[in-house]
Specification:
Bound molecules: magnesium ion
Strand content: 5-15%
Number of domains: 1
Strand order of the largest sheet: 3-2-1-4-5
Helix content: 40-55%
Largest sheet: 5 strands, parallel
């Protein structure tokens, strides 16, 4: 699948100080599984690229979409991941997840990674990985069912 990740409070905390626990190994596992990873952020390109570099995350993402690219005047546009054939958005915003689902795309809502919650934070990357893997398997099985459909009819 082509997976878009939100940046703030999904991959890093809102201050940009820390990376979500386990997120690097999550990215590695998803890449090994053959997924393509992209970033879709409401942050500006300047801030976003700087934070990615600061945390050693540059080069992981196939595409990067920043505020200037889809909502330059902050009018509240949704993340339309149909751009370059995105399949799934991983985001801590219920509104963005609902938006991509309304487009017929997959959305995975993750808990917000915020400074105030850091003391109690646990590594939830395995949970996220398992949910993404399930979604990927579901989309593969619905694809193969579609392909089997006409063949089955042909046998009758
Ligand atoms: Mg966010």
């Amino acid at each position: 699948m082509h997976i878009y990740f939100d940046l703030d409070e999904t991959v890093i905390d809102e201050e940009g100080d820390e990376v979500r626990p386990g997120v690097r190994s999550l990215f590695e596992k998803l890449l090994i599984d053959g997924h393509q990873l992209s970033l879709w952020s409401a942050s500006t390109e300047e801030r976003g690229t700087e934070l990615l570099a600061q945390h050693g995350l540059s080069g992981i993402f196939r595409n990067t979409v920043f505020r200037e690219d889809y909502d330059p005047n902050r009018e509240g546009y949704g993340k339309d991941i149909r751009y370059r054939c995105g399949d799934l958005l991983v985001d801590d915003s219920p509104a963005q997840v609902e938006f991509v689902q309304s487009l017929g795309k997959k959305g995975l809502l993750v808990p917000s990674f915020r400074t105030e919650l850091k003391k109690h934070w646990i590594d939830d990357s395995l949970d996220i990985y398992n949910q993404i893997t399930c979604m990927s398997e579901e989309s593969q099985s619905s694809f193969s069912q579609t392909k089997k459909g006409p063949q089955n009819r042909g046998l009758k």
